[in-house]
Amino acid sequence: MSNVYLYAHGGSGNHGCEAIVRSTLDLLKDTPFEKKILISSRPNEDIKYGINELCEIEKDIMPYSKNSIEFVRAYLQLKLKNNYIPLDKLDYKKTFDHIQSGDIALSIGGDNYCYADVEKYIMLHEMLLERGAKTILWGCSVEPDLLNNSDITSDLKRYHLITARESITYNALKKINPNTVLVADSAFALKPMCEKLPLEFYNRDMVGINISPMVQKNEKIPGITLSNYEILIEKILEETDMEIALIPHVIWDGGDDRVPLMKLYKRYQKNGRVLLIEDRNCSKLKYIISQCRFFIGARTHSSIAAYSSCVPTLVVGYSVKARGIARDLFGDEERYVLSVQEITEKDILFKKFRWILQNEGLIKKKLVNEMPQYAKRVLVAKNYMEQLFN
């Protein structure tokens, strides 16, 4: 009996990564795999948020002997040819060695091919193919311009199946790998976990707000993103009776949403209509987001939690995934996504939100009508994976 491995997972402190793991494992419940195993770079985080109750967890990088011939050969490659890949392979060898022909390996990182360490993911894919695994690039987004890189293109061609979570990626990847299908991110099917809400939520007139260091790093004018959020909050407090919930979705060191959110909270907490939500697992965060009247989100999976709960949403994005998902849902991303690279005015975020506010009824109706059919795309990924297994 074959096993299914979920790999390229950074850890559940990124609740988007956690949402992909939880929703994917839920899809795999009635599939004929003997084991579901998560290969993680931060297993302690996964245990903290309860992923160990859903599947086995293995550490991705394992210690190895420096007295072995393999190490000597790899070390010489580094010194003589400046080739670090053989040494990197040794880090993953023990974890990958028990993967066998017929096992299925899901690369669940989503947009890992968009980042600087793409060579690592090409290497991991190569190792899995060498062991006979059937490989799937699961729920991915890839910037079309990256396909000008021949190393990336050559690697993407080798996947047995690619499930693209939005049409911009699908249209680009279908040209180079015919085994590409259009799906929805599995997190659209994530089940919210009900819990007691802060008292402020019970008037059901809450604006959820998420900001991330990632969008701040992609801004063209230093500090302009946070300034836009400040004006947004001030205008909401001045011109409406709504309250504001600041909601973190990633708590990793160096990328902790709570850092910019705390700055906002400290600035406006005396107003009495702004609260900061504490960290919790992705299912509980989805429930909180679902109780908002509006949502403004920078993290992709915080916006997916809002979309799938039919909450009118404005996304502050920096990449193809934000544009592609909004385009597929609404037919046009212009009104629903603000690209951080295009923020040049200090009040553009509020201007965008004002349109969402003024068109609340139409947006809500659109989401309510479209979401059941759109969410079925999640099952498309499962169906294609089962065909691959058979």
Task: Based on the model shown, name its key terms.
single chain, 390 residues, alpha/beta, 44% helix, 14% strand, globular
List the helices and strands and how they pair.
Layout: E1 4-9, H1 15-27, E2 36-40, H2 43-48, E3 56-59, H3 69-81, H4 85-96, E4 104-107, H5 118-130, E5 134-140, H6 150-156, E6 161-164, H7 167-173, E7 180-182, E8 206-209, H8 213-217, H9 224-239, E9 243-246, H10 258-268, E10 274-276, H11 282-290, E11 294-297, H12 300-308, E12 313-317, H13 320-330, E13 337-339, H14 348-358, H15 360-375, H16 377-389
Parallel strand pairs: 1-2, 1-4, 2-3, 4-5, 5-6, 6-7, 8-9, 8-11, 9-10, 11-12, 12-13
Helix pairs in contact: 3-4, 4-5, 9-14, 11-12
Order of helices and strands: EHEHEHHEHEHEHEEHHEHEHEHEHEHHH
- How many beta-strand segments? 13
Report the portion of residues in β strands. Answer: 5-15%
Provide the low-confidence segments as ranges.
Answer: none
- The end-to-end span amounts to 12 Å
Q: Rounded to an integer, what's the Rg over CA atoms?
A: 22 Å
**Largest sheet strand order:** 3-2-1-4-5-6-7
Principal-axes geometry comes out as globular
The residue fraction in helices comes out at 40-55%
If you average the pLDDT, what whole number results? 93
